[in-house]
Amino acid sequence: MGARYFALISGIVFLLIGLFGFIPGMVATPGTAGPAVVFKAGYGYLLNTFAINVLHNIVHIAVGIAGLVSYRTYLRSRNYGRGLAIFYGVLAIMGFLPVLNTVFGLIPIFGHNVWLHAITALIAAYFGFKTPSAAEIREHEREMVAGRYRDRF
After folding, report:
1. Rounded CA gap, 120 and 64, in Å?
2. pLDDT band at residue 117, thresholds of 50, 70 and 90?
3. Residue ranges of the alpha helices (H) in the chain?
4. Closest CA to 148 of 67, 64, 74
5. Which end of the chain is more exposed for a tag (fewer CB within 10 A), N or C?
6. Using CA atoms, how far apart are residues 55 and 44, in angstroms rounded to an integer?
């Protein structure tokens, strides 16, 4: 699987996770565990495991849309993987720090979110930073020749 298919599959998964966060049957009410969150709209636990709120869902939807948009070309999908690796790597580290594990009270990233963010960062790093295969290089060259890669305003 190449960087393009990683962008497509992760985009679909993130989009679905973001949408699932808005379905009441998928979100359990928060207990007393975990740090206090200032932004409580939609606060709960997705699948009784992952702390989320409305802002967290919006971030997942935005990441999913970015993945679907970057699927079009090899370079964009590789850069998506790189950006995702850095973004989720930083979130995993922030989840360990008590002062930052709610992103200043706005988005809960503590508990099981930490290992999920770390795994996501590792997988994204693999697809974002690995040496491209010969097929991916040929695909990129075809994109350049066809003019599909040019950014149009």
Report:
1. 13
2. very high
3. 3-20, 54-70, 74-96, 112-129, 134-146
4. 74
5. C
6. 12
